[in-house]
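Subject: mismatched residue count in predicted assembly?

I count 675 residues in my input, but I want to confirm that the predicted structure covers every chain. Input:
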Amino acid sequence: MERADYERLRWRCIRRALLELDITLTRFLDGGEFEKLTDEERLAFVELADMEDYDLWDLLTGKAEIDDPRLAHMVALIRKS
Amino acid sequence: MSIPVLKFDAVIVGAGGAGLRSAIQLSEAGLKTAVLSKVFPTRSHTVAAQGGVAASLGNSEEDHWTWHMYDTVKGSDWLGDQDAIEFMCKKANEVVVELEHYGMPFDRTDDGKIYQRPFGGHMSNFGEKPVRRSCAAADRTGHAMLHAMYQRNVKANTQFFVEWMALDLIRDEEGHVLGVTAMEMETGQIVIFHARATIFATGGAGRIFYSSTNAFINTGDGLGMAARAGIPLEDMEFWQFHPTGVAGAGVLITEGVRGEGGILRNSSKERFMERYAPNAKDLASRDVVSRAMATEIKEGRGCGVNKDYVLLDITHLDPATIMKRLPGIHEIGLQFAGVDCLKEPLPVVPTCHYQMGGIPTHYSGRVVMPKGGDMSSIVPGFYAGGECACASVHGANRLGTNSLLDLLVFGKSAGDSAVEDLKAGRAHRELPKDVADKTLARISALDNRKGGANVHETRLAMQRTMQDHAGVFRFGDMLKQGVEKILEVEKAARNLEIKDKSMAWNTARTEALEMENLIEVAKATMISAEARKESRGAHVRDDAPDTAEFPNGRNDKEWLKHTLFSPVDNSITYKPVNMQPLTVEAVALKTRSY
Ligand SMILES: Cc1cc2nc3c(=O)[nH]c(=O)nc-3n(C[C@H](O)[C@H](O)[C@H](O)COP(=O)(O)OP(=O)(O)OC[C@H]3O[C@@H](n4cnc5c(N)ncnc54)[C@H](O)[C@@H]3O)c2cc1C
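Triage response: the counts match. Full output below for your records.
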């Protein structure tokens, strides 16, 4: 991933509407978890990060169901971090 | 270097509730309006507001705006300006109904009216008993509000500049405000927004504290920009601590939990609020509850290994009611406290939540500051609304659900005033020759400095200092030390170094620029808090205790006045509180008790 693309992604993760997501996503990125991801996992992460805050929060807390196994896998990784 | 200039009738910094509400007034009046935001509008922090917005609609039981006004004055511990408070409470029904027309999906009663629930400090008949005044959209009130207003702005052709950060206010020699300098994050390019009217709606600065319910974006940029342009900050010693942040994380547990019947308990499971507020109990206003919790903890009745938190118990409520009315709470407990709140109580501590002070404004949304003998002289071309502004309606303490109301009412009135001033003929004034020099100098200093301070460490030092020295309970000697410490941190904050020098998406630079704003707010807070030698509302000093002469430690003879902190020389002046409402009788001074 290009530096600028990563930094844009980082900005969109560390400045959320909800503190809950700031904490969770900053922990994931700045804890070095993103670097360990495969290209396909990274795409899934970007897809999640693009979501509206409550929608993402609902996925991360299991309140909403996820059909897409790629996203489900990514959610599991974030929850574990 | 030549810097691009973009010309607008109005530039609004901030796309949260206040900014979007202002923009509707300007764009619908046919004015060319730019709105800048660090994030996509519907990612503004207003989204986090879950509880609701206050309006005395009287849908569930009898209510009246004069009762709401009384509660707000009392909540403010009489520091709120009564003209502004009357203006806000009277306008509440109008702005809430407007929002309904914009498509806001409010909860409904069975007969189709807006459902209203009770909320701390809101009472009927001048303080008699709790009243249902809060209008909500499930627990997503702020989110629904922003979406409704964003759509309305799109229709009205408001021009959005998303992921742009405003850096400095442009003021000419006569003190007129002419716009802002800003940075496009994608390119790092600096641009001048030249406007006939400039409106700040940049939200709060709760990240100056270590334990905060505020999202990371709340770095007080509007206050920093105003301070750097020589505009004083009002009543910055007053910060509301939310009683119920999840111990350790700061994540908020909405007051609606207590509205629906949640009970605070200490280590012996006692419902301790009965001792502190016999009538309102767990629904007393926030600072009363925070102080009670802090006292329980201080006196050794806290829970856990370190006895450093208390419990919020909803295990007696019907799980179906919890899941229906308070759907987010269960997950928050699981995720940030590791607790299933249906079965076990939640660990909570008082956590910084809301900034009562800010950029001084008149209730028309026009920014005011001392000039000559006039303590409230208008700064031409400059307006502010929402959490960054101080009208002042919240005074020494805000009532829950009054800030969403504040941003609707004062966002709208700032917009209306700007429209009025522009229609009266206010023109674009010539930009000063050195218009962007200060901004460029700041950026270049960051880019070129070697051996400077680390941003993350400096922020942490500031947050610890604020938490330890100017928290929910304040001590004279700690405040004195706090002033010295924060001035030390300021030196570091003026000497930041960043490793990344890239232009595009340089988040290190952005965070450093935010830090330069945070420190202005932290300094104003500490110095204003040290100077105010009484207890009032959310500012509670150990050396200004509750006595017969000064109930609750409040000293109206000496301290019934607004603080104005001047960032130019760190000095303080005071201006009188406006005790005269617009049309009704004043709410007379009284001891504040619930
Ligand atoms: C967790 C939580 C729950 C709350 N619940 C309630 C509630 O139930 N009821 C209630 O009345 N109040 C509540 N509040 C308070 C209320 O939500 C806020 O006071 C209010 O939303 C602030 O709105 P605003 O428009 O002033 O600012 P925000 O919504 O914070 O918007 C600020 C805007 O300014 C932009 N911005 C900032 N700096 C810059 C810059 N330098 N350049 C460009 N753009 C910039 C941001 O991008 C953003 O768009 C709550 C607060 C919190 C933290």
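Residues 26 and 80 of chain A are 14 Å apart (CA to CA). Marking this ticket as 'not a bug'.
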